[in-house]
Structures are given as structure tokens and as C-alpha cells.
Design goal:
Chain lengths: 501, 249
């Protein structure tokens, strides 16, 4: 292992490291757009198609970095043009057109290389092109890669909004006077440059991995294109350098090692990405199921408690649990504060949860009967499912539309909403401070601030944990603790209109 | 009321030899909301695309405020049908609304704080300022449409072209959108809406354009939106449709 560290003093290793870093960043940045525009296959095609260009350049000018670069880019662009021509003029499917053209170009290149090699004194190694030859990176190569990197980065930064608009909504981009076609060809040009610049590092077969894998990883991790481009560049950089390191340690080819490292990150993101990852989704599903189970359990307990019939055996029977299962449930809920300590009784918090669930259930039933005209025997099952998913905002709106009913269609009372506080209001929402506050201290503090009950307030904004509200054209700043203690009722302008006789 | 903002003469459009619009003459004035009414395949969306220069026309001319569309891109905003959008795209509501500033920028000019302020103002007007950092696909249908209308407002154009903006949108949002558009018309802007709900035509539009591959009727809604014109526009299916819509009123 020791000589691993000595390796880094060798100039070829430093050049290899620099080349990989730059290629990783370049492919990562460009890849984000390639993936979003469904151009992954085009990336692969342009890479494979550079071979005949390399052969022609070699015949014409011999083995110079600039010569090979020019030949490769030319071949790439010719391929892009032929593919586009077929897609537009010939009745062949788009991906088939790509496949036909690039395999033909690739085959031409392979035959060309083997026939050149038959001449005495000439050696072009096909393997170098297929999988890269990073240990042979020359200083000239490094400069070329650097120029391409700067070109790609500058283009993406300066022309970001053109890339964004044409990728997201090409039609809108056109109505804004952006030439979608020009942006497309420009991107193809950048792609061709990048693919050729990556030749030494990963080779034509695997360059597509550097383009699409880090970008796909980034797409799982963020919802904003700007961030995705940066994250993708980062994963490109890490995959390329870590891959190179591993390849040197294990004495194997760097290209495949880089591709595998990139894939490993992708796999980790598939599993563990927040929101989009499988583990995250499964956890969410489990939490949801648990919440529904808890809520149903508390609702049943609440009903029995109200009827003074609550004991372990009745509760177990109603829930179809064994008594041990019921005990376990009560324990867990108690540790979360939903049950009284050492008693089989719901705490205030538990009662509240149950009441809100019953409110949701009964309001929904009322809504189904009054607005959708369903009959009473159709509605219970429906409400039983949906009661767990109705948000407070939606319920408030339903409540308002129904004219704040007190009884559901079966004649059972609908519990009222739990107190809403200023801290729970959305920005711009109007509300009224209620007369009853949880303590006289809150009432006194409101008095000090000059905030009156019964006069509408509106929440202007939330800044640094404080809440700015406006009452009668006066702005008052309320600290967070107070805001979460002041109970309010939502206020809608049309209510006031309705009240005018 | 206003000056002529869209002047279409002798316009004909074909898709692969099939005529979609023929011999269209339309003179649209500023300060009005126009409803574009017609059956499926009548060429309503095609008319918009022709005005926007997205498709070539066989014959005829379209002048936007006296010029070709290419010179007036800034002044014309297009809100396409909602199903044309990739909802998984990594764009926030703010990103989308900021697009409205693109036509005002020179090639390498970057968006600045005043662009952001305008975008925020448009979001506030549509009542979704608190959603500005959400990804567009996470919004409900109505909220998405509010975001796209906010983008249109942010562009501050003279002419609004909206293709079925009320499809898949809740009633509160529909009311909000029409209220804002009426405000725009009152400020002298011109609004064109492709619309299919005949029951709301009289409430929404000052004037209507009834087309079925050609212009059947155009004029003030009160005098133009007659049973006879509806029948001519929708041919056989129409009287029934209109009766149904009247039942709903």
C-alpha cells in the first residue's frame, strides 16, 4: 500500500488526476442537460462515432493531440447532422436513426484502425480509444481538456436561461424569441467537445456513464436545476478521481472503475435520497400506516371514554386486538403523550386528536350528503378512509361552505376546530384574535402591543422567527412564543360582506 | 375603445395539405377580453400558433401592433394548455415565473434583484407567494395555472394568449384568473382566451370570435353569441350543447 502515496509524486499520476477531475466536472455539468433533454443515447452515439475522425486525422497529420481532437470533433458533428437529417426527413424512429448512424461510424473507425495498424511502424491501439489511456495523458492533452472545460462552464453560466427555457418548455422559449434549434446545435457542439476531451480518461464506450450517471444521481437529490448542475459536477468529480485512485491501487483500467464508482453513488441515491429514495418512501409509508392505526385507536378509545365504557377488554374487542396488543398500543401512545400516565384514559392531547378526526369524518359526511347528494348509507366508508388525509385548511373551507354545521347527517354533533394560533397562519391570511385566550398573560401582552380582538389582522410576513401582522394599517411585530400562544379565527372578506344587512 | 393590436388578413394555414384555417380576417382592439369559441379541430389553437409565429402560414399576413411578431415578442405572452408541461422538471415556481423576464434581457444580461421583485409581485397578485420555492410538479392543478399566469403577468405584455386556461383548475382559481385578466383589459391590454365552456361565455368575454376553420362570427358577446351563430359554429351538435349550458345557468 505504501507505494500508492509515492505514485502521486510521479508526473503522469498528477496529469492523470488533473485530467480526470476536469472530465468529471465537465461531463457532470453537461450531463444534467443531456439527461433532462432525453439525449443520453445521442451522447453515447457521438462518443462512438469519433473513431473514423481519429483515423482520418491520423492519416493526414499523424499523432498530435490537436489533430486527433479536430478529427474527432468533426466526426462527431457530422454524425449529429446525419442523425438529425434522418430524424427529420426519413420515416425512421428517432432512436433507431441514432443507432444506425453511430454503429456504422463506429464500425468504420474500427476497420480503419486495424488497417492502419497493418502498415509497418504504425501503432494505434484500439483499446486506448475504447477504454481510455489515462496514464498517457500529455501536457498538450491537459491544455485541451482545460480549454474545453472553461468553454463548457462559461457557456452554461452565461447562457443558463437559454438552456433552462429550451429544456423545460421549448414552445414557450420560441414565443420568447429564443431559437430552440440553435440552442440544440450549440449543446450538441458542447457535447462533441466534451466527449472528445474525455477520450483519454474514460474512452468512447464509457463516456456516456460519466455524462448520465452523476446527473441522474443529482436529479434524485434536488428539485432545482441550478443545484442539480452543481451536484452533478460534484459527483462527476468524485467518481472520476476516486475511480482513478481505486484503479491505481488495484492496478486495473481507470475508465471502468470511474463508471462503477459513479454507479455506486447512483445506487446509494436510489436507496437513500430524501423524498425520492426507496428507503425514504418506505419509511413515509410506514409512518403513514402507523399514524392511521394510532388515530383509529384513539378515536375508538375516545368514543368508549365518552360513553364511560372504557376498559381494556371492550377496547380490545372493538379494535380486534388481543389485550396484550392493546396494552402495547397504549404504552406507545402514552410515551407520545396521548394517554394519561398510569391510567387507561386519553390525555388532553389524545382527546384533541380524536376530536379532530371525528370532526373531519363528520364534516366530510355532511359535505358528501349536502353537496354531492349521496345518501346516508353510502358515506360512512368513504369518510372512514379520507378522514386521515383531510388537512385543517381544507376542512376549514368545507366547514365554511357548509355554513358551519353543528350536526352531521346522522345527527351526531360535529366537534369544533381546535384553536388556531397566529404562528399557524399562512402569509397574507386574515384572521381575528379571539376573546378567549389561553391565559391572562397573553391577553395582557396583546393589550400592551395594542392588538385588539374582533378587528381583522393580516399576517404580513415571517422574519427571523417573528411575525409581522397588520391591524388597521399599523404593523406590529410579535415574537414567536407569543405568536404560537395567541388563538385566532380565520377571517374572510366575504364574511364581512355577508354580515352587512 | 382601443387601437388595433392584432390585424390578421386573408390568413390560411394547412397541416400536411389539410386546411385548418382558411381566409381568416380579424381586427382585434386593445382593452378587450376576447373569447375564442369553436368545436374540436376548429383551428383555435392553430390560430394562436399562427399569431405567435410558431407555424408557417400558406397565405395572408399577421401584424402585431403594426409589426411582425418577431419584433413584438416581448409584447405577446402565450399560456399553453396545461397538459403540455413536464411536471417532473426540476424547476421551482420562482424559476418558472422568472422566465417572464427573459424577453426583456439582452443575450448575456443576467437576471437581477428588480426582476426577482417583479416575479414576487406577480406571485403575490396570484396569491401563491408562499409557494415560490416549491417544485412546480408539487403544486395542485389550480396552483400550477396560477404560477403560469404569474409568469405571464411578470412579462408585462400588451397581449395575452391563453389556450383553455380553466381546464383542470378549481373554481376559486378560475375566478381569480378571470378577475386578473379583466383587470388587465381595463388597463388597456388585450386578452384572447380559447374557451369551451359555453355557460360562462357571457360572463367572461367582452367580445367573441366564433371559428370553425373560418370565422363564423365575431363581435360583442351580447349581440354575437346567439343561438343561430352557435348552431353555425358547432353545426349539428351545437343547439344541444347550448341547451345543456343554459340548463346549468
Amino acid at each position: 500500500m505504501e507505494n500508492i502515496w509515492y505514485v502521486w509524486q510521479e508526473s503522469w499520476a498528477i496529469r492523470a488526476f488533473l485530467a480526470s477531475s476536469m472530465v468529471g466536472i465537465m461531463c457532470g455539468v453537461l450531463g444534467a442537460f443531456i439527461v433532462l433533454r432525453n439525449m443520453s443515447l445521442i451522447g453515447d452515439a457521438l462518443a462512438h462515432a469519433i473513431l473514423p475522425g481519429v483515423v482520418v486525422a491520423f492519416i493526414l497529420v499523424g499523432q498530435t493531440a490537436i489533430g486527433l481532437f479536430t478529427g474527432a470533433v468533426a466526426a462527431s458533428l457530422i454524425t449529429a447532422v446525419i442523425i438529425t437529417w434522418i430524424q427529420q426527413k426519413v420515416n425512421t424512429k428517432n432512436d433507431a436513426a441514432i443507432g444506425i448512424v453511430f454503429t456504422a461510424m463506429f464500425s468504420l473507425g474500427v476497420i480503419g484502425i486495424s488497417s492502419i495498424n497493418r502498415k509497418p511502424g504504425v501503432h494505434l491501439d484500439l483499446k486506448d480509444f475504447l477504454f481510455g489511456n489515462i496514464l498517457g495523458v500529455s501536457t498538450e492533452d491537459l491544455y485541451l481538456i482545460l480549454i474545453v472545460l472553461i468553454y463548457v462552464l462559461a457557456s452554461v453560466v452565461l447562457l443558463y436561461r437559454y438552456f433552462f427555457a429550451t429544456t423545460f418548455q421549448p414552445i414557450i422559449a420560441r414565443t420568447m424569441g429564443i431559437s430552440v434549434q440553435t440552442v440544440h446545435y450549440f449543446l450538441m457542439l458542447l457535447l462533441a467537445f466534451s466527449v472528445v476531451a474525455s477520450l483519454r480518461t474514460v474512452g468512447v464506450i464509457l463516456v456516456v456513464a460519466m455524462l448520465i450517471t452523476p446527473a441522474s444521481t443529482a436529479l434524485l437529490l434536488s428539485k432545482r436545476l441550478e443545484r442539480i448542475v452543481v451536484i452533478s459536477a460534484l459527483f462527476g468529480l468524485i467518481s472520476a478521481t476516486l475511480g482513478l485512485f481505486i484503479a491505481i491501487v488495484l492496478d486495473t483500467t481507470p475508465g471502468p472503475a470511474m463508471a462503477l464508482v459513479a454507479t455506486l453513488f447512483y445506487f446509494l441515491a436510489v436507496m437513500f435520497a430524501p423524498e425520492k429514495g426507496l428507503v425514504w418512501k418506505a419509511t413515509r409509508k410506514r409512518q403513514l400506516k402507523r399514524r392511521i392505526r394510532w388515530e383509529d385507536f384513539m378515536k375508538t378509545t375516545y368514543r368508549l371514554q365518552e360513553e364511560n365504557e372504557l376498559n381494556l377488554s371492550v377496547l380490545s374487542e372493538k379494535m380486534s386486538y388481543t389485550q396484550a396488543q392493546t396494552q402495547r398500543h397504549v404504552q406507545t401512545l402514552r410515551s407520545n403523550g396521548f394517554f394519561e400516565k398510569e391510567k387507561l384514559l386519553l390525555s388532553e392531547k389524545g382527546k384533541n386528536t380524536a376530536q379532530q378526526l371525528i370532526r373531519a369524518h363528520r364534516l366530510w359526511e355532511t359535505y358528501l350528503v349536502e353537496h354531492l347528494g349521496l345518501s346516508q348509507d353510502q358515506i360512512h366508508e368513504e369518510a372512514e378512509q379520507i378522514e386521515h388525509f383531510l388537512t385543517d385548511d381544507l376542512l376549514d373551507e368545507v366547514d365554511q361552505r357548509l355554513g358551519y354545521p353543528t350536526k352531521d347527517p346522522h345527527g351526531s354533533p360535529i366537534p369544533s376546530r381546535t384553536a388556531l394560533t397566529i404562528s399557524q397562519l399562512p402569509v397574507a391570511q386574515k384572521a381575528i384574535i379571539t376573546h378567549e385566550q389561553i391565559s391572562n398573560i397573553v391577553t395582557a401582552k396583546l393589550w400592551d402591543l395594542g392588538l385588539m380582538p374582533d378587528v381583522p389582522i393580516s399576517l404580513k410576513q415571517k422574519v427571523n422567527g417573528c411575525f409581522e401582522v397588520e391591524q388597521e394599517h399599523r404593523i406590529v411585530t410579535i415574537p414567536n412564543e407569543l405568536a404560537s400562544a395567541v388563538s385566532v379565527k380565520r377571517f374572510y372578506d366575504d364574511e364581512a360582506v355577508n354580515q352587512v344587512p | 375603445m382601443g387601437s388595433i393590436v392584432i390585424d390578421i388578413k386573408e390568413l390560411s394555414v394547412s397541416y400536411e395539405q389539410e386546411r385548418v384555417l382558411s381566409n381568416i380576417f380579424l381586427t382585434l382592439e386593445s382593452g378587450y377580453i376576447y373569447g375564442v369559441i369553436g368545436p374540436n379541430g376548429a383551428g383555435k389553437s392553430t390560430l394562436f400558433k399562427a399569431i405567435l409565429g410558431l407555424i408557417t402560414h400558406d397565405v395572408g399576413s399577421i401584424r402585431i401592433m403594426g409589426e411582425s411578431i418577431e419584433k413584438k415578442r416581448k409584447e405577446v405572452v402565450y399560456v399553453p394548455q396545461k397538459n403540455d408541461i413536464d411536471l417532473s422538471f426540476p424547476a421551482t415556481v420562482m424559476d418558472v415565473v422568472l422566465m417572464g423576464r427573459y424577453p426583456h434581457k439582452k443575450v448575456l444580461q443576467r437576471l437581477n434583484a428588480s426582476d426577482k421583485a417583479l416575479a414576487l409581485k406577480a406571485l403575490e397578485e396570484m396569491g401563491i407567494a408562499d409557494l415560490k420555492d416549491r417544485q412546480i410538479g408539487e403544486l395542485s392543478g389550480g396552483q400550477q395555472q396560477r404560477a403560469f399566469i404569474a409568469r405571464a403577468l411578470c412579462q408585462a405584455p400588451e397581449i395575452f394568449l391563453l389556450d383553455e386556461p380553466f381546464v383542470g383548475v378549481d373554481i376559486t382559481t378560475e375566478n381569480k384568473i378571470i378577475e386578473i385578466l379583466k383587470e388587465m383589459a381595463a388597463k388597456g391590454k388585450t386578452v384572447l382566451i380559447v374557451h369551451h365552456d359555453l355557460s360562462t361565455v357571457e360572463d367572461y368575454f367582452d367580445k367573441i370570435i366564433m371559428i370553425n376553420q373560418r370565422v363564423v362570427a365575431v363581435g360583442d358577446t351580447l349581440t354575437t353569441f346567439t343561438d343561430e351563430n352557435i348552431a353555425r359554429t358547432f353545426q349539428s351538435q351545437a343547439p344541444l350543447l347550448h341547451k345543456i349550458s343554459r340548463l346549468g345557468v
